[in-house]
Design a protein that fits this description.
The protein is α/β, with parallel strands linked by helices. α6 crosses α7 and α9 runs antiparallel to α10. It is globular. A 6-stranded parallel sheet has the order 1-4-3-2-5-6, with helices on both faces. The protein has 10 helices and 9 strands. The protein binds adenosine monophosphate (AMP). The site of adenosine monophosphate has 17 residues, from α2 and β5. Adenosine monophosphate (AMP) binds next to α2 and β5.
Length: 279
């Protein structure tokens, strides 16, 4: 697997692939790779001739008080995992390559970015859509794979690709979990052994909530019960536990005909965990 760090070197690689008439799948990541990321690489291999993974810890999607500086980094370990999963190329630009001095144009995310994460991390999706737009222009993939683990991110990116007529297909991949239900996340590395024991309660609580919603039980009461369950288990704070339209991410209080999603963001000590399920 080749590793490239400049746009010039990347363009040479993609031009060679195109010359051979082959297609490209892109899997964007921030590194600290786990089985969830690797499942995206495996899915990507079934979607295109060549798989490009990117590793870039994107500073513009972190607020100043967030965990950019301590975000886990292990490029050598990541490269070994990617290579053994069959990834063809690693695109690993530095910050100066991605955001050269003077860069000032950004993408403004659409309506799906406003609720939920948008309330608690108001600058986050602006950084995400801008870097993904750049990654799409750099790699020129036919398909890009994103995890449903970041369900709102996927919805926001679908709106961007649709509304800006971007010539690629987005594919959402199911969330990989530990046996006890905890969604795999690079941020799980922050959890103390005691927090790690409590962490699966998040998935248990939203599983119960999703089942109640699917059974037509009153949504607001079911949300309150889920919040109580996580707080009683020892979580520090609930940013949100919500039931939303799966496409627009707007909160709903009643079941209609459209698909619904249960989404949650909660704090366990100093670690923020997110998870979601269909309802
Ligand atoms: P990240 O490195 O956290 O930005 O994630 C890179 C990609 O991997 C995103 O599309 C995530 O949604 C996806 N991802 C993260 N965790 C998981 C997981 N547990 N299962 C499947 N995909 C995941």
């Amino acid at each position: 697997m080749k590793i490239v760090r400049t746009i010039k070197a990347l363009r040479k690689e993609t031009a060679d692939v195109r010359k051979d008439g082959e297609t490209i799948a892109l899997v964007p990541t921030m590194g600290a790779l786990h089985e969830g990321h690797i499942s995206l690489i495996k899915l990507a291999k079934r979607q295109a001739d060549r798989v490009v993974a990117s590793i870039f810890v994107n500073p513009t999607q972190f607020a100043p008080h967030e965990d950019l500086a301590r975000y886990p980094r292990d490029e050598a370990g990541d490269a070994a995992k990617l290579e053994s999963a069959g990834c063809d190329l690693l695109w690993a630009p530095g910050v100066a390559e991605m955001y050269p001095e003077g860069a000032s144009v950004t993408v403004k995310p659409g309506t799906a970015s406003l609720p939920l994460e948008g309330t608690f991390r108001p600058h986050h999706f602006g950084g995400v859509v801008t870097v993904c737009c750049k990654l799409f222009n750099q790699v020129t993939p036919d398909v890009a794979i994103f995890g449903e683990k970041d369900f709102q991110q996927l919805a926001v990116l679908r709106q961007m690709v649709r509304d800006l007529d971007m010539p690629l297909k987005l594919i959402g991949a199911p969330t990989k979990r530990e046996k006890d239900g905890l969604a795999l996340s690079s941020r799980n590395a922050y959890l103390s052994p005691q927090e790690r024991e409590i962490a699966p309660v998040l998935n248990a609580a939203i599983t119960e909530l999703a089942a109640k919603v699917a059974a037509g039980k009153p949504i607001e009461a079911a949300i309150e019960a889920a919040k109580k369950r996580v707080i009683d288990a020892g979580f520090a704070k609930v940013d949100y536990i919500a039931v939303a339209d799966a496409e627009t991410l707007k909160a709903v209080t009643q079941r209609g005909t459209k698909p619904l999603r249960v989404l949650a963001a909660v704090w366990l000590g100093k670690t923020r965990l997110i998870d979601n399920l269909p309802a």
